[in-house]
Amino acid sequence: MTTVTPGPLFAYHAVPLPLGPAETLARLLAAPAAVTTATADAIGRCAPRFADWGLPMHVLPGVEAAVAEGGEPGQVRLRWSGPDDVTGWPSMTAWLVVGPRGEGSRITFVSTRAPSMGLGAASVHRSHARRLLAVAIQSFLQALAANLLAEAPVVDARELLGATR
Amino acid sequence: MTDALHLHAVQHVDRPVDEVVDRLRRDAHTLADDATRAAFAATGDARAGLPGTPPRVDTRHHDDGMAVISVSWNDDAGHWPPPGRFPFATDPTSPWWHREEEQTGWPSITLQIVVTPSATGTRLAVLSTRAPGVDVSTNRIDRHRRDRLARTAVEQFLVALADLLAPVETPAETPAVAV
Lengths: 165, 179
Prior knowledge:
The structure holds two protein chains of two kinds. By secondary structure, chain A is α+β, with helices and mostly antiparallel strands. In chain A, 39% of the residues lie in helices and 25% in strands. A five-stranded antiparallel beta sheet of chain A has the order 2-6-5-4-3. The longest helix of chain A has 24 residues, at 126-149. Chain B is of the alpha+beta class. Helices cover 30% and strands 22% of the residues of chain B. Chain B has helices at 17-26, 28-42, 100-104, 143-165, and strands spanning 5-13, 56-61, 69-74, 109-118, 121-128. The termini of chain B are far apart. The interface between A and B is large, with 36 and 36 residues.
């Protein structure tokens, strides 16, 4: 039995996969770079949109992914860091929860960051911040699912993200 | 977008995830009821001096969302004495409602059972919209004790559920052979 430190969690979005949960987790753990690559892909996809909204992404957010400990909410811990009120990309700690869905599986994005928490008082309106959060997380999960299902080896994007910070 | 969820407890089950999910989907109510009764028995010392019977257990299957099933411990057998004197008090959401939880200390809570694969089997986690430290009562049970009861109840439930899903196999006894 692992006793867990209480703290509110928020389940944001989920993406279904045609693989069984054990297979999905195995692929996720075998290629942790899929998480950083998916972040880079999602940022690439969102950046023009964010720029249209007045948030040019001059600084790329940092991303760290690690296998979670037993008492954590999910199997992989993800941390996005950076000046989110400048870039619009949310700064948050999240967990990826791989669970069953029918015959396949789903990856759910869970975070201790509340959806109603503003990105910042300076440049981003609160309702705008919610939209940014939703777009960022949905784009990330879509990219992650594509990476996990891709046959090609996953490219490590950590250097790319680290070099530009 | 979503309610705040609280992670109450995590427990390992030494069985493949597909098998655990299948059993939970097939025997949800029986498993939840048996695990609740086992947890109720295991918390006997913590409940010393408090009356009560095991709570009513309701289960629901989920296909959308993180949880495979949810288990509700209900205390809707509450009352407000004398009956009928305060008609508004028949509403369980009314603060005048005399909740069974205040009598027994057993938490009224919906547990979302999240099943995830792990490297060596399956991991069960309990999530709930009820925070672990929320008040059970303001009348009979002091804050420290009701916190402990709520935590112990959920933890014991999950331990019992894991045991039901992966019973410990007792090795067969070798019959004594007379020489």
